[in-house]
Each structure stands twice: as C-alpha cells, then as structure tokens.
Amino acid sequence: WDLDKEGGKADSSVEEKTAEREGSEILEPYVGMEFESEDDAKKYYIEYARRIGFMVRIMQRRRSGIDGRTLARRLGCNKQGFSPNHKGTLGQEKKPRPSAREGCKATILVKMEKTGKWVVTRFEKEHNHPLMITANGFNTTGDKDKKIEELTMELAHQEQLCSAYREKLFAFINNVEKQTEELSSKIEVIVDNVRKLEAERQRFTHRSAGSLGI
C-alpha cells in the first residue's frame, strides 16, 4: 500500500508559500516542509485548516512491520470521499441522509525520514467546495465541528502516548531478552566448570587408587 499514490496531484514546489485570508497571513504547506514529529505535523495542519476554513480528517497511515511505528500519515479535508448509498432489506433504497462528504481532494502526506524528521511529501491545496471564512480569517464551524476538532486533537495526543508506550515496551522486551541471554551464557559456563571439576575429581580418584594398589 503506497500512500504516495493517493490524494491526487502533488504540489512540487519547495519554496515557502503563504495564503492570505482577509489580511491574515498563514504559512501554507509545501513539499519538503519538516516537522519534529507526527504530532507536530498534525497540529500544524489542523491549525492551518482552521485558519483556512475546513475541518481535518485523520486518514490512512503506514506502519512498520517490525515494531508497529507509524512511518507515514495522510491527512485531508473532512469532505473527502463520498458516503455510500444504503439499501433496505427489501432492496429499496433508503432516503439518503445529509452527507458532509463531497469528494474533496485536498490532502497532505507526511513521512518519517531516517533522521527522525517528518517531511511533507505530497500536498494538494485545492478544495471542490466553498471554505468557511470569517472577517478575522477563522472558520465559522458550529459546536459539532468544534467538538470534532477537539476530539481530533485528543486522538493525535493519545496516538502519541501509545507510540511512546510501545517504544518503552519494546525496549523492556529487548532488555529482558538480553539479560536472559547473558544469564544463559553464565549458566553454561558454570555447568562447564562443574563438569571439568567432576572430571578432575574422577581422574584424581583413579590415580590415588592406582598408587595404593587398590
């Protein structure tokens, strides 16, 4: 599964760009933009979205097959995709519910580099729907959207905690395995020494018996 193949056309510019909304200047994402952590990248994009006028959906991620760490994460507009049509038990289509999804392609992809930095590798700026902007450059979301934003931030925080706990667990397991190997080596040395002493004792017993003519 390649996250790079999703999310539409990428913005290949690596120059620092800004977006102006009602006199408010906001740093716009660009390919090559760096963050110290995945959490920092999420917080930045959520704040950028809040200032521009859309909500963020936490989307796919790619994990390491070795330790389960997140290696790449895709974030996008909450209007991405389309809601499926649901049918009743008799095959009749139910009355469609209002959907917030409009097939928007706005997205950003960040990946963790070997240096540990998180880098933007894909950015799709354009939305296919109006953005909610007020005179001061902030969106006019209601209580529901505000709650979604709060929960999104909390989810990002909890994922960061889970990642930290996972790393501690793997470190503990590795330490236990190392100590087990060291203990096994020491036991082997002790057993080998006991065998040598037993062999020496038997040889000494045989020599003593021979010298006494027994």
TrEMBL record:
Keyword RNA-binding: no
Regions of compositional bias (Basic and acidic residues) in chain numbering: 92-102
Record-linked InterPro entries: FAR1_DNA_bnd_dom (IPR004330)
Record Pfam families: FAR1
Keyword tags: Coiled coil
Entry keyword annotation includes Coiled coil: yes
Coiled coil start-end: 148-200
Domain of life (superkingdom): Eukaryota
Region (Disordered): 1-23, 77-102
Domain FAR1: 43-132
PANTHER family membership: FAR-RED IMPAIRED RESPONSIVE (FAR1) FAMILY PROTEIN, FAR-RED IMPAIRED RESPONSIVE (FAR1) FAMILY PROTEIN-RELATED
Name under which the protein is recorded: FAR1 domain-containing protein
Organism: Gossypium trilobum
The organism's taxonomic lineage, starting at the top: Eukaryota, Viridiplantae, Streptophyta, Embryophyta, Tracheophyta
